[in-house]
Amino acid sequence: MVAVVALSGCVSDGNRGERPAVPDQSVLEPATQALDKAVRANAEDFAPRAVDSARRRITLARDILFAAARADRDLKPAERERIDVLVAQARLDAREALVETQAKAVNKQLGQLQQTQSQPADETTGRTDGSLGFDNGMGGSGLSNTAPIGG
């Protein structure tokens, strides 16, 4: 019963025609686009805190917009500035999430490459005596009778 009364109040307020019930949210677009890009890159898996932070900031900015719309007034200069700051911070959070996700993906791929490449160094020459394979018939590298470099 209370929900019906609350809804009817919203409907009657929206029918006044003076202001739209839903404020213009285009100011949030840079932040929401950056967040969407991070989410598409699976940032929720690799950088959940940064993603959550961006979402909280966008939500707070949206709440400020809706509060002004419900009060049937324009944004105050302080509210506009706060929204601008929140949007900028949310964009940075989303970029952080994307960069962290990309870095972790690169590290994962690097680890996989290192794992597949992990062979003992001697396997590359086929030698087991630690030499580089320059055999002079006397063992070792064959470089023992050479003059030192620079001398």
UniProtKB/TrEMBL annotation:
Residues 110-119 have a biased composition (Low complexity). Residues 110-151 are annotated as: Disordered. This is DUF4398 domain-containing protein. It comes from Salinisphaera japonica YTM-1. The lineage of its organism: Bacteria, Pseudomonadati, Pseudomonadota, Gammaproteobacteria, Salinisphaerales.
